[in-house]
């Protein structure tokens, strides 16, 4: 911004493992980035995405990715998003970014881990509910996929990943994508008012 190069800002890491989504159409899930992010109050402004987040020893710990803008009311009472830093910046953890970069160099494309289910993104309860059916009428749980092999069923509500609570579909996707294909996860599932613990081996899907 402002044609100012080689600019450094300073701040602290104010949270880790912060689930955020950025870009795309949240309703359809297209082109959305799901990130288990580092949160920082170091000013990140438009145009800074892709720059490094450094620690006090100048080691790269993250890749600046998104900011939370300020809400601004107009004369009609509508709220719009105002650009610029308000002390809520987010960065992709460097290990996650490094894995994707190495895969792109090695194969020419990136993959992300999946459990092979369609989630009901309109579900307003606590947890992530597996939909009753998938896109175009296909099964919500892919036959022979990671979720099916683990015993996940349509209508199940996934409430925890490795013992850590998830409160919605976005959070579940973010927790899954913080891992690698082939990793083992323990999912806590609520089914017919009873909790079940299922072990799933993450599958792989190509990024679009």
UniProtKB/TrEMBL annotation:
Entry keyword set: Hydrolase, Protease
Molecular function in Gene Ontology: serine-type endopeptidase activity
Signal peptide (from-to): none
Database matches in Gene3D superfamilies: 2.30.42.10, Trypsin-like serine proteases (2.40.10.10)
Pfam families: PDZ_2, Trypsin_2
Tagged with keyword Protease: yes
Every PDZ domain range: 113-193
InterPro entries, per database record: Chloro_Bact_Ser_Proteases, PDZ, PDZ_sf, Peptidase_S1_PA, Peptidase_S1_PA_chymotrypsin, Peptidase_S1C
Superkingdom field: Bacteria
Coiled-coil stretches: none
SUPFAM superfamilies: PDZ domain-like, Trypsin-like serine proteases
Keyword Transferase included in the entry's annotation: no
Protein's GO biological process: proteolysis
Record family assignment: Belongs to the peptidase S1C family.
Protein name according to UniProt: Protease
UniProt source species: Streptomyces katrae
């Amino acid at each position: 911004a402002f044609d100012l190069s080689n600019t450094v800002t300073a701040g602290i890491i104010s949270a880790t493992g912060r689930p955020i989504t950025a870009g795309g159409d949240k309703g359809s899930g297209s082109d959305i980035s799901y990130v288990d992010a580092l949160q920082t109050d170091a000013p990140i402004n438009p145009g800074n995405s892709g720059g490094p987040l450094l620690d006090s020893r100048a080691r790269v710990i993250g890749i600046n990715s998104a900011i939370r803008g300020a809400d601004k009311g107009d004369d009609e009472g509508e709220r719009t998003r105002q650009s610029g830093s308000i002390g809520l910046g987010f960065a992709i953890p460097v290990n996650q970014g490094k894995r994707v970069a190495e895969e792109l160099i090695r194969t020419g494309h990136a993959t992300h881990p999946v459990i092979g289910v369609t989630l009901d993104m309109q579900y307003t309860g606590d947890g992530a509910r597996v939909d009753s059916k998938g896109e175009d009428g296909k099964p919500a749980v892919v036959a022979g996929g990671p979720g099916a092999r683990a015993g996940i069923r349509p209508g199940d509500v996934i409430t925890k990943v490795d013992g850590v609570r998830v409160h919605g579909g976005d959070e579940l996707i973010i927790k899954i994508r913080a891992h690698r294909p082939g990793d083992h996860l323990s999912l806590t599932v609520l089914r017919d008012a009873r909790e079940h613990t299922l072990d799933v081996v993450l599958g792989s899907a190509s990024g679009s």
